[in-house]
Protein 1
Amino acid sequence: MPELPEVETVRRGLERFVVGRPMRLVEVMGTRTVRRHPAEWLLTQLPGRVVRRVTRRGKYLVLGLDDEVDLVLHLRMSGQLRARTPSSGPRLAHTKLVVRLDGADELHFVDPRTFGEAFISAGRGASGRPIELARLGLDPVLDGVDPEALAALSVSRSRPIKVLLTDQQLIAGIGNVYADEICFRAGLLPYRGAGELTDPEIERLAAAITSTLGEAIEYGGSTLRDERYCDLFGAPGRFQSHHFVYGRAGQRCARCGTDVVGIRLAGRSSCYCPSCQC
DNA sequence: AAGCACACCTGCTAGC
DNA sequence: TGCTAGCAGGTGTGCT
C-alpha cells in the first residue's frame, strides 16, 4: 500500500519520465478510476498539454500541466504508475489509464483493486494546491515536523498515537506500515493516548517521523510480501528489510529478541515490541 | 464535534 | 489437489 515514501519515489520517476513532455492521447478503461467527474474530461482536456511539474502532497500526486490545469492521482491500495516504452511488451493486467506521450512512450496507471483514482482538479486554492487536497494536514517531508507542531496536534487528544499518525487531516502521508515503524523507532506503544505524551516523548516521535520517512525514501520505499509496489520503472523498494515490527507479529524483535506482538487497533493490524516500546 | 464502523475491491493464503 | 473463507488497507460516507 503506497504511502509517502513510495509515492515520493514514484514522483521522482515521473520527474524524469514525463516533465517537459506533451500528453498526446488518453485512454480510460473501466468506470471506477475516474469517478469525480466524467471520464471524457481526461480525453478532451489532457491531450496537447505539457507536464510542467510533478508535486506530491501526502499520498497524492499532482501533475501540473499547461494553463494551470492539475491532474491529480492517488494510488490507494494497489495502484501503480508505470513507464511503458515500445519494448515493454503487452499491457499489464488491470491497466486502467493510459497516457501516450511524445514518441511511443506511455504512462500507465495499473490498479487491480480499483481503489485508486485520477481526476482533473477543479482549481487551485490560496496555497496554489488543488482545492480537493485542502483538507490534508501537514506533509512531514515538505513542511517538516517540529515537536511544537506535533504537540499542538496531539494536545487534548485521547486518540491513540497511531490513529493520530494516520489521520491525513492532521499529518498527510503516513499509513499503517510507517505508523508502526515510526512508533517503534520512537519507542512508544501505538495505542497510547496522544494527549498524554511527555515533551521528550513528543520530541522522539517527531524525530522518528522525520528519520523513518527520510530513510524509507532513500531506500525507494517498501515492497511487502503480499503487495507489489514498484517504482515507475518496475524496481521494487528496498526499505522492507529495515522494518522492525510491521508484519512481524510472532517473530523476534530484531533489536532485543522479544516476540513482536500483533493487535488490532482502530480496525487495523498493528505490531509492536513490548520490550522496546513503552 | 468527534470518533467509529463500514463500503469499496481483488489477490493471496491458511485451513479444510 | 482443490476449494473457500478470511484478510489486507486508504479514504469517503454515514451513523452514533
Protein 2
Amino acid sequence: MIEKRLPDLDIEKIASSGQCFRLSKISESTYRIIAWNKMLTIKTEENQIVKFDCSEDEFESLWKDYFDLEQDYNEFISSVDKSDTFLCNSAQYGKGIRILNQDPWEMLITFIISQRKNINSIKKAVEILSTKYGEVIDEKNHIYAFPTAQRLATASIEELNGCSLGYRSRYVYSAAEMVSSGVMDLELLKQLSDDEMRNKLKTIHGVGDKVADCIMLFGFHRFDAFPKDVWINRIIDYEYNGVFPFEQYKGFSGVIQQYIFDYVRNSPEYDKKKSLNNREIRD
DNA sequence: GACCAGGTGTCCG
DNA sequence: CGGACACCTGGT
C-alpha cells in the first residue's frame, strides 16, 4: 500500500472528466481503475491523502507516470488570463484534474466507440469488449484487460455487432486490422509532429478531427490537442464569440480543454442551459 | 413514438 | 470546401 499526500490529484474529478472509461467508483471515496493490464484500487482520505493499493515498485514504474504526478498542474491554472472570468472559474474548478497517460491503442478504439454515445454507453461497450476479448486480470472480481489489437482483429464483424457498438463495429474491426497488421504503427506515431500525427490517425475509418484529438491528448499526451465536441463548440460560440485564444495557451491548451469540459458539464455553478439557449436562438 | 447523445463518411452543389 | 443526411443503440 502506497500512501501520498496529493493536493492536486482528484480521482473523482478525473473519473467525471471523460478522458477515461475504466475508472469507476466502487464504494465511498474508493475508485477502481483498470489500465495497462493492471487493476488498482485508490482510496482518498482526509487531508488529501491518497492510498494506492499496490507495491512501491508498481507505483514507481507505472502509476506515478499514469497519473502524471511529475507534472505541475498549478502552473497551468495560474497561467490563465485573469481577465477571462469564465476560464478562471473553469480552471479553479478543475483543480485536481490531470491528463492520464493511457494506452494509445485503447484510446483509439475507445474514442471511435465514443461518437454519438453517452458516457455510460461508452463504458458499457468497453466492458463488453474487455470481458469478451481481454486477458483475465482478476478472475474472482471478473476483471479483464482491454483486448489487444491482435485479438480484436480475430473477431468477426458479426461478433462485434453483439458488443453494442452499433454502426461503429466496422470501424473497430478495421482499426484492429490496421494496427495488428502493422499498417498503422502506433509506436511510430510518437515520432511525428502534431499535424502529422493527426493526419495519420484520420486515415483510420471512424477517426475524424475530434476523435483524433482525443487520442492525441489522452493516448499520446500531446497537450496541444484540443478536442472540439458539441459542448466545447457551444462554449466557444457563447463565451468567446467563436474565437478561442489558443495561442495564449500553447503547450497546454488540451489541459485547458479538460477544465472547460468538466466545468461546463459537472459544475453546479455554471448554468449549462445558457449556452444551449443561445445556440437555439442563433439557429 | 420522436428525439437526442462528447462524430464521421459520403454525396452533392 | 461547406451543408445535408444517414448511421446503431439505449435512454427520456
